[in-house]
Amino acid sequence: MHIGQSANAHPVTFKNGLAAYSTFQPGMARVSSNYTFHHRAAVGVTYLRLHMPDERRIGTLGQLNLLLYRFNGAGSQGNVYVMGGGGALASSDDSRFDLKDAGPVYFGSIQSDFETRTFYTALQGSVLAHDDAPTAWARYRLGLAPYVASYGELQTWLVGQIMWFPDMEDDLNVTPLMRFFYRTVLWELGADLKGRPWIQLMAHF
Amino acid sequence: MDSTDGPFLKVIHMRVMICCLLFLFSVAVQAKPPEPVMPSGPGPAGGPPAVVVTVKGMVCSFCVQGIEKMLRDLPSVKDLAINLDDRKVSLWTTGSPPTDVQLQKTVRDAGYEVEKIYREPGSSKKGQQP
């Protein structure tokens, strides 16, 4: 499992907006929150728990998300975000963690997306550094809306997600999923081609 | 997921259940009266909207919630309606409607751009252009 599989759905929302989101997969649970203090910037914090075959990791990271560029079209929107931050990550081969042994972890990411009311595409590249050499990964999403919902109604998306982890043996992960919006709540449900579930929830206030 | 994830799977199931309950709660607390179907239709005061703003970039209903929230926070806004088909936000107001400057700032803070502002004849004159 990899921290990259839980990328931000909306790194920057609206001024004074507060977002909370969580992602669950076998071997990984992540809970995050961010606060948009400027319409182009947000700060956030993430709690992460990873269960690997031979060790477990827990970490807390702070991050800054910046909206570098936004294109607001007549029927479309495009965005470019950059995100970065760091924190501490502790490892253990049993359930007990000694936080004094926690090491620093840093990450950076750039994300671009474009959408209309029926089409959505997003590309993200990220890098993470902890203990040893940095690792990088990329994610691409393509989404189609089977119907167009009015404002305030349930909107459904069919999304295909491809993630590439060049440093890992299992380097390609393909996940078809469904994304739903209803008012200020978003949730995604899916499973990759190996049957591993994906659940992501987000709400903004 | 295999049998070795037993205890972990239980934790995941519990967390998923908690998140589902939080989701249902968040949906329940947002229950509100239905918005006007036609942006130009009668609002709570029985008349047309005082201001209709055409906004660029309004394609995602999840994200557009921010526009609604920020415009509702304006003191003079009594009610509003959002139509994603024609990208219009209709405002019914009490007292002096928001000025053009206020509207452009609010929409910008929500992450969007104002394309056009239409004011119902007889409503307050628009404010200064930026």
Give the topology:
The complex is a heterodimer of chains A (205) and B (130).
Chain A: E1 17-25, E2 28-38, E3 41-51, E4 56-72, E5 77-92, E6 103-115, E7 119-130, E8 135-144, E9 155-164, E10 172-182, E11 185-191, E12 197-204
Antiparallel strand pairs in A: 1-2, 1-12, 2-3, 3-4, 4-5, 5-6, 6-7, 7-8, 8-9, 9-10, 10-11, 11-12
Chain B: H1 6-29, E1 51-56, H2 61-72, E2 77-83, E3 88-93, H3 100-109, E4 113-119
General description of the model:
The complex is a heterodimer of chains A (205) and B (130). Chain A has strands at residues 17-25, 28-38, 41-51, 56-72, 77-92, 103-115, 119-130, 135-144, 155-164, 172-182, 185-191, 197-204. Chain A has 205 residues and is mostly beta strands. Chain A has a 12-stranded antiparallel barrel with strand order 1-2-3-4-5-6-7-8-9-10-11-12. The radius of gyration of chain A is 17 Å and the shape is globular. Residues 1-7 of chain A have low confidence and may be disordered. In chain B, 33% of the residues are buried. Helices cover 35% and strands 20% of the residues of chain B. Chain A binds chain B through residues 10, 12-15, 17, 22, 24, 26-27, 29, 39, 51, 67, 70-77, 115-117, 149-153, 155, 181-187, 196-197, 199, 201, 203-204, and chain B through 1, 5, 8-9, 11-12, 15-16, 19, 22-23, 26-27, 30, 34-35, 55-57, 59-67, 69-70, 82-85, 87, 108-113, 115.
